[in-house]
Amino acid sequence: MPQLGVNIDHVATVRQARLTNEPDPVHAAVLAELGGADGITVHLREDRRHIQERDVRLLRQMIRISLNLEMAVDQQITEFALEVGPDQATLVPEKREELTTEGGLDVIGQHDRVAACVKQLKQAGIGVSLFIDPEADQVRASADLGVDAVELHTGAYADAPSAAEAQAELGRIRAASELSVGCGLVLNMGHGLTYRNVCPIAQIAGVHELNIGHSIMSHAMMVGMERAVREMKELINS
Ligand code: PXP
Fold first, then answer.
1. Active site annotation includes 191
2. pLDDT digits (tens, 9 = 90+) for 128-168
3. Which helix (H) or strand (E) holds 84?
């Protein structure tokens, strides 16, 4: 069964909207854990628009499930990751003007910068995952860097304007998945996954973890965090 990593950035987005201390993403993480989450994901962005350093430090102490820190290939954030020691760091591309992470990391084009960052994290014993588009060249370049995992970007599948295009994207994701597993990489996936579109992705052979944020947080606002996480977990397991 694929594991569920719950991205709680949006809880911090609501808090930062008023620059107050509620809702607390640490509280949300504890409830997500009670609902059956296998991991918690947070993205410490360069502009600190949602998650703050304080959140990551407290999460490291509070949760017993795994902590995945999404981060840009940036020296300052890397030093913070080395200090806190998440179970896994997922390197993502980051643009200040984007609403959310738009595309995968260009592991080929940014090879030297990514390699230097990966080396520091791995030397500290932190598992490293690269968030990439489901493309064979990016998978191979990731494997060559000696990372532990890749997270395949499912956004194009989730946003496909027609069922036929969603099927075509699913085909690309399946092919990249097979290659990733063949290269010995742990296979994670995420972005744009919802209660409606998650099942075909959860059925892909070899998938280790799905990272889901927006859809679970939206549902949690209506039904509560524990129930929202439990319902997603049940869907994935089904
Ligand atoms: N995986 C990565 C690498 C991401 O950047 C995000 C968005 O923060 C997600 C997964 C979760 O995406 P969504 O919020 O669309 O479920």
1. yes
2. 999 999 999 999 999 999 999 999 999 999 999 999 999 99
3. helix 75-84
Structure tokens at 179: 């290659």
Residue 89 CB contacts under 8 Å (≥ 6 apart), including other chains? 68, 69, 70, 71, 81, 121, 126, 127, 128, 129
Six-digit token pair at 208?
């280790």
Encoding tokens for residue 230? Answer: 């439990």
Is ligand 1 within 6 A of the CB of residue 213? yes
- Amino acid code (one letter) for 87: D
42 strand-pairing partners? 69
| Other residues' Cβ atoms within 10 Å of the Cβ of residue 122 | 16
Which distant-in-sequence residues (6+ apart) come within 8 Å of 6 by Cβ?
29, 32, 37, 39, 40, 41, 211, 212, 213, 216, 229
pLDDT, one tens digit per residue, over 20-64 is 999 999 999 999 999 999 999 999 999 999 999 999 999 999 999
Active site residue 43: yes
> Which one of 43, 153, 208, 219 is the catalytic residue?
43
The pTM for the full model equals 0.95
